[in-house]
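Today's session is about reading a structure prediction critically. Students often jump straight to the picture, but the first step is always the sequence itself: look for stretches that repeat, for charged clusters, for runs of hydrophobic residues. Only then move on to the predicted structure, which in these notes is written as discrete structure tokens rather than atom positions. Here is the chain we will use throughout the hour.
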Amino acid sequence: MKEMYALFVIVGLAVTITYLCLAMSAYVKQTGKAKIRFTVSGIFGLVFVVGIIGTAVGLPEQQPQSAMSVKTYTEEDKSVALAVDEQFQRYIEELRPFEQRSIDVISDIKEDKIDRLSAYEEIRNMKDRYTASYKKINKVSIPKDLPDDLKRDLEEIQTGIATNYFTRAEAMNHFLDYIDTKKVSDIDKMNQQLELSASFVKELKLNSSLLYSKVGAPQSQ
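Below is the predicted structure for this chain, in token form.
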């Protein structure tokens, strides 16, 4: 039936256009054949419409996009994905106090509430911790047998955390340079790195939310 309706469309359109042109020509030249040609054009126009309707009716129904995109995961997949994420979150919790302390030290040295040597030692310790952490995070293994989209989500989280701590290590390094040289340009470089860090954190939260929407939030949340 679909082939017949397709033929109706092709023939109906071709004959309709042809006879319509002939009818217009006859009307202009007053040959007396315009009426019959308009009639033929109209008849085959109906054939064309029937073909279009028949073709449309024969098309398969489209499934709603939301229904097609729903994906389920086994409890084992969810458990494994959350276990990997738990390793990432452990690093975040361990370093959270140091992030706050770095803010305090930077503020204290600007207000002369801490001597340069003590500030230098604290900031260098933080830089070393950030450096060690992003290297360890990059070594966390993500099981290859997880569904591709869960692996991709975990890889995005892993990259986001590691990049954040690499950026913060660079920021601390610029602040160490500032303690040594007192160049304002080093403060500017540090602030640039901290702004990048903040953007990575926002993206990280979005990626974590995406993962949790699929496997459920950790019990600690």
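Discussion point for the tutorial: The chain is about 85% helix and 0% strand.
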